[in-house]
Amino acid sequence: MNKDIFNDPTEFDPSRFENPSKPIPPFAYVPFGGGPHTCIGNEFARVETLSVIHHLVTKFEWSLVNPEEQITRLALPYPSMGLPIYLKPKH
């Protein structure tokens, strides 16, 4: 909401971040807030994510699409093809 950083700070304009007219200092834009101004849906999103993961783990059988997929190691190990999986509902 600082007029020294953003032109028309009260106007909804998401494109202002594509080509800013002047440099935006670090932490000038924190979309979900911080401290007492954090997003009110933050805890709901966490519980919802945990619920989805629980159902994926308990109600589906998982198998690898490419069982011979190699693990690539640069800074950290990661699957070279993104580790695609098949999900089959348990009956």
TrEMBL record:
InterPro entries: Cyt_P450 (IPR001128), Cyt_P450_B (IPR002397), Cyt_P450_CS (IPR017972), Cyt_P450_sf (IPR036396). Keywords: Heme, Iron, Metal-binding, Monooxygenase, Oxidoreductase. It comes from the Eukaryota. The keyword Metal-binding applies. Residues 1-20 are annotated as: Disordered. GO terms for biological process: isoquinoline alkaloid biosynthetic process; sterol metabolic process. One of its GO terms (molecular function) is monooxygenase activity. SUPFAM superfamilies: Cytochrome P450. Belongs to the cytochrome P450 family. This is Cytochrome P450. It comes from Macleaya cordata (Five-seeded plume-poppy).
